[in-house]
Design a protein that fits this description.
The protein has 100 residues and is mainly alpha-helical. The chain contains 5 helices and no strands. Helix 3 crosses helix 4.
Length: 100
């Protein structure tokens, strides 16, 4: 029997994503000792528990879609740029806009 497929470690994915985006914030690389200490604290506090990360809230999806449409993209391209499915995109567009 083949071994079960391992999921990528979410904490390592988080730190890798943070590291790859540090330059866009005008910051240098994350020092290895800071990453190790932070990772150790998080693993000590949360280790062994499974945590649920909900999908982006509808508001975030709506904002991304609106931004893509305002930039002049057609509906199909805007949905792809906003990373929403066709069905979700049309559901968002069918909702009345909340002003305020």
């Amino acid at each position: 029997m083949a071994p079960p497929r391992m999921r990528p470690d979410i904490l390592n994915r988080f730190f890798d994503e943070l590291q790859s985006n540090m330059a866009s914030f005008g910051l240098g690389p994350l020092p290895a000792d800071v990453r190790e200490r932070t990772e150790a604290r998080i693993r000590h506090e949360l280790g062994g528990d499974r945590h649920y990360l909900p999908a982006a809230p509808a508001r975030v999806k709506q904002q991304r879609l609106a931004s893509a449409l305002r930039s002049g993209a057609n509906i199909k391209a805007a949905m792809q740029k906003a990373e929403v499915s066709r069905r979700t995109g049309y559901r968002i567009l069918a909702r009345p806009a909340k002003l305020g």
